Amino acid sequence: MNVPFLDLNAQHKTLHDEIFLALEQVYDKTAFAGGPMVDQFENDFAEFCGCSHAIGVNSGTDALWAALSCYGIGVGDEVITVPNSFIATAEAIHNCGATPVFVDVDPQSYTMNPEQIEESITEFTQAIVPVHLFGQTADMDPILSIAKQYNLKVIEDAAQAHGALYKNRKAGSLGDAACFSFYPGKNLGACGEAGAVVTNDSDLADQIRMFRNHGQSSKNIHSIFGWNSRMDGFQAAILQIKLKYLPSWTDARRRHAQKYYQELNDIQDTILPKEMELNKHVFHVYSIRTPQRDTLMRQLQEKGIGCGIHYPTPIHLQEAFFHLGYHHNDFPIAEQCAREFLSLPMYAELSEDQIHYVTNQIRSIHQSQQMVA
Ligand SMILES: *Cc1c(COP(=O)(O)O)cnc(C)c1O
Fold it and tell me: Number of helices (H) and strands (E), helices first, in the chain?
C-alpha cells in the first residue's frame, strides 16, 4: 500500500467541476487582482473567524508582515515569538526591521510557554506573535493578559489553525489581529499563493487594505508606504468554494487523529499529540515524538508511507538568524521537538485502511527494534 504524506488530488478531484465553473466566471469578469471574488471571500472568511474584517493578501508571510508593519513595528523594536515554527513567523518580524526574541514552548502543547514571556520583555518590546502550531491554539488567555499589562499587541500566527477553537473562541479572533496562510497544503488551501489578516480593529484593517495596494487610500493617492500584495481573484474564487467544505474536512482530520491515537497510544517511547483542555485541535499536522525518529522515518518511507519533519532546525539555529547570537540549548523543548518530531500522513481524504496500514507498520518496526535491543 502507498500512503502519501499529502494528497491534494484526492480533494481536488471531487471539486473539479465546481471550481472550474467559478474560475470561468473570474476569467469572464477579468477580476484578477483583488475585485469582487476577493471581496466575497473576505466577507465569508471574516464571518468564519468571528471577526469583523478579513483582508486578503498574497501569502501568509505577507499577512504577518502587513499586520506587524501596519501596527508601526519597525527598526529598533522587538517582537516575542517561538523558535519552533515555520521560518516565515520570524522572517516577517525581521522584514519589518524589528528583532525576533524567542521564548521556549510548552512540552505538551508545543505552543508558546506563557511563563517565559515576562522575562523576555524589554523597553523595546512591541508585540507577541504566538503560533497555533499544528492546528492547536496557543494558551492565549495568559498571553493576552501579559500583553495587556505591558501594552503589547498580540498577532496570532494562525497559518495552521483554520477553524481551531480556544475556550469556544475561534482562532483568529483571539488577539489584536491574526494571520492565515492559504498555501496549497494548509487546511484551507488555494491552488497557488494566498493569505489573509483578520481583525476586529477597523483602523488596522484600513491600513492593511492600503498597505497591500501600494499604500493607496484612493486612486493615485499613496498615503503610506505599502507593497503589492493583493489577493489573486482565481485564488479567492477557489477558497470561497473550499471554505464551505472546511468544517467537514476538519471533522475528518479529527476522526483520523482519534484513530491514530487508538492504534498508537500503547507504544512505548512514543508521544502522541495532545489536545489541550478546552481546545479544539484541527490537526493540520499530526506529529508524533520518538527518540528513534530518523530510523522510523526511513523505514516507513521504505514501506511506501510519506512522512515529514516540522521542523528539523529550530529558527534560532538557522543560519539566517545567526546574527541574533542564539546557541544550542537556549530553548531545550523546541530543540528536543526538532530532534524527535515525525509528522504522519494527515488529510481529510485518508482512509481508515491507510491509517491502519501506517499504525501497523509503526508497531512492527517498533517491535523489531525492541528485539534488537
Ligand atoms: C505556512 C506558514 C506560514 C507562511 O504562510 P505562506 O502562505 O506560505 O507565506 C507562516 N507561519 C506558519 C506557522 C505557517 O505554517
Answer: 10, 14
- Centre of ligand 1 to C-alpha 361, Å, is 31
Q: Which of 183, 197, 212, 232 to mutate to test the pocket of ligand 1 (most atoms within 8 A of CB)?
A: 183
**Could you tell me the distance, in angstroms and rounded to a whole number, from the CA of residue 88 to the centre of ligand 1?**
6
Residues 6+ apart with CB under 8 A from 42: 53, 54, 55, 56, 196, 236
Q: Determine whether the shortest distance from the Cβ of 195 to ligand 1 is under 6 A.
A: yes
- Centre of ligand 1 from the C-alpha of residue 353, in Å: 31
pLDDT band (50, 70, 90) for residue 315: very high
Decide: 86 in ligand 1 pocket, CB within 6 A. Answer: yes
> What is the reported pTM?
0.98
Q: Which residues contact 4 (CB under 8 A, 6 or more apart)?
A: 306, 345
Q: What distance in angstroms lies between residue 373's CA and the mean position of ligand 1's atoms?
A: 40
Kindly write down the DSSP assignment for every residue of 36-68, as one continuous string: HHHHHHHHHHHHHHT-SEEEEES-HHHHHHHHH
DSSP character string of 167-180: TTEETTSSSSEEEE
Q: How buried is 181 (Cβ within 10 angstroms: 0-12 exposed, 13-18 middle, 19+ buried)?
A: buried
- What is the atom index within ligand 1 of the atom nearest the CA of 61? 9
What are the pLDDT digits (tens) for 215-237? 999 999 999 999 999 999 999 99
Give, for 239, the enclosing helix (H) or strand (E): helix 233-264
Instruction: List pLDDT tens digits, range 13-72.
Output: 999 999 999 999 999 999 999 999 999 999 999 999 999 999 999 999 999 999 999 999
Q: Is the pLDDT of residue 373 over 90?
A: no
Place of cell 547570537: 325
